[in-house]
Amino acid sequence: MNPAAGLVAAVFEKQLILLRRYWINTAMMLVSTYVFFAMIFYGGQAVAGPAIGEGTLDGIVVGFFLFTATVSAYFGIAGNVMREAQWGTLEQLAMSPFGIGRVMAVKAVWNVSISVGIGLVLLVVMVATTGRTLHLDPVTVVTLAVLSILSVVGIGFVFAGLSLLYKRIENASQLMQFVFIGLIVAPAADGRPLLAALPLTQGSAMLTEAMAADTRLWEFPAADLAVLAAVGVGYLLAGYVVFHLLVRRARTLGVLGHY
After folding, report:
1. What is the rounded distance in angstroms from the CA atom of residue 131 to the CA atom of residue 73?
2. Where on the phi/psi map is residue 186: left (φ > 0), alpha (ψ -120 to 50), or beta?
3. How far apart are CA 206 and CA 204, in angstroms?
């Protein structure tokens, strides 16, 4: 088997084993996320009643879908490094023929795939709960979701690298989920380059339009798709470079395998 294909197969097999072994943890994450959504939905209806329009409901459902996938991908990247350090296998990964960077890159692919899958499962449940009708063209939704999440994966790489140097940064890492909420609910970035350059903002607006107005991927302006792809890939590459530099710094200080 090709070495690169062997790495992908080994990483995916390990992640599947972990998913099966700790399935209760995965199930509880899904349940707690749904309960959080239900509290907002039913609580909002109790307080505001009919004042919550259909457009607002669509925005809440799509925003929660993107938030679920975002948080799952982000904590997957940063959490992977912390867990490897706790298990004492981080140095083994660093000394492997592929290096820790490529191993984490393959894990990032797994994390994005599983995050979008979890988000879609919850999306179906949320649509059934609210009774709303959203348009779920798989090509459009998956493409926009993946491009949106790439920027968050880059941020996850930065925090993963910081955890190698400073070890216990969970509190700082968890604060980022509130930042993600702000970015997802930010106004659409139409004509505002600064907003379009932020993670998630452009993707959130395009996902809402795709699901609420049944806009297909090829019906979006090419410029909007280019901005979404550029922001996602840009943050991803920048985050990966920072991660690589922080790994080198941790090696220099001799703290790579410490926890």
Report:
1. 28
2. beta
3. 6
pLDDT tens by residue, 20-79: 888 888 788 778 878 887 887 777 666 665 656 666 777 778 888 888 888 888 888 877
The single-letter DSSP state of residue 49 is: G
What lies within 8 Å, CB to CB, of 28 at 6+ separation is none
73: Cα separation from own chain's centroid? 3
Place of tokens 């049944």: 214
Tokens 């792809």, residue?
229
Structure tokens that stand for 144 in this block: 């926009």
Q: How far apart are CA 210 and CA 141, in angstroms?
A: 7
Amino acid at 50: P
Residue with tokens 């926890």: 259
> Residue 66: CB partners within 8 Å, gap ≥ 6?
119, 145, 148, 184, 200, 203, 204, 207
Model confidence, pTM: 0.83
Q: Which residues have a Cβ under 8 Å from the Cβ of 169 and sit 6 or more positions away?
A: 159, 162, 163
Q: How many helices (H) and strands (E) does the chain have?
A: 10, 0
CA distance 256 to 254: 6
Q: Residue 242: which of 181, 168, 153 has the closest Cα?
A: 153
Q: Output Rg (C-alpha) for the chain, integer angstroms.
A: 19
pLDDT in tens, 85-132: 777 777 777 778 888 888 888 888 888 888 888 888 888 888 888 777
CA-CA-CA-CA dihedral for 80, 8, 100, 240, to nearest 10: -80
Q: If you write DSSP's letter for every residue of 96-127 in order, what string do you get?
A: STTHHHHHHHHHHHHHHHHHHHHHHHHHHHHH
